[in-house]
Amino acid sequence: MLFFQIAIGVGILVATIVGATESVDWRVAIGAAVVPSALMFGLMLRLPDSPRWLVKAGQDDRARTALERVRPSGTDVSGELRDIEDLVEAEQTASTRGWRGLRAPWVRPALVVGCGLAIFTQLSGIEMIVYYSPTILTDNGFSDSAALRVSVALGATYLVTQLIGLAIIDRVGRRRLTLITLPGAALALIVLGTFFVTGNDGEAQVPYIIATLIAFMAFTAGGIQLMGWLTGSEIYPLATREAGAAAQSASLWGTNLLITLTLLSIIDTIGTGQTFWLYAAFNIAGFVFLYRRMPELTGRSLEQIEKRLSDGRFRPADFAGSR
Q1: Long-range contacts from 42-49, C-beta under 8 angstroms, 24+ separation
Q2: The overall pTM is greater than 0.85
């Protein structure tokens, strides 16, 4: 998860730098995306099959070979292979498993929190800023070069605050970090909206608009943006974890698609400032939802989290003060 989040931040920063390089034709900039795609495709061909999947398919010998391939030479993987076999057996014999298991009443609280968190990760407005900040800024009087430089600054802020958030998340706590940063993101969007609604978006206010955009990016990238992927590997019972993580991912990208399709139309309909206020309201709604529904998962083992779910004690108050 650490490297996944860092990779996203690096990718955004590199993409904005390439896009802001005015000496590069826009067709070349877009076509350059083929390079990392081709590299990823080539590296994927060398990835070994998952030992866990091979065990589930009854191919224990291939599972052993796959484990030995990714472990130091000469390592005895017999113990690790037995652990995988035990986990696979536990998953296959569980009464609640797979997609059908997500509908079980005792699993539903985890699904609600996971998918709700994924949706609010996107409704926070971070994708609006990452995807459309140059368009929004140029439509409101910024020069093309200034808008692109702001995008680079936002990409750098995304990466740096992701690194900071990942460094402190286990000390601060997942729930606490999210609830601390969401009000800051909402306030930044309210201030941004006020600049545009009141007409204070001219040249004199440019430094303040940029500073507020960077503040929003810092609060969001270092807070709720970390949680959309992280919780998917933690909150679901073992036998439903794959389906739960898939449902959470679908919720996240489905919301992302909705934002991509509707954002510019919303701006044209209600205005730039009012759109910032709308996303500020989403952040406030996300704060209320997570305050009421998301327990503090930091410091709890996967087994402890599953036990709380099975006991019907998956509310914030049920996790308070115990590790």
Answers
A1: none
A2: no
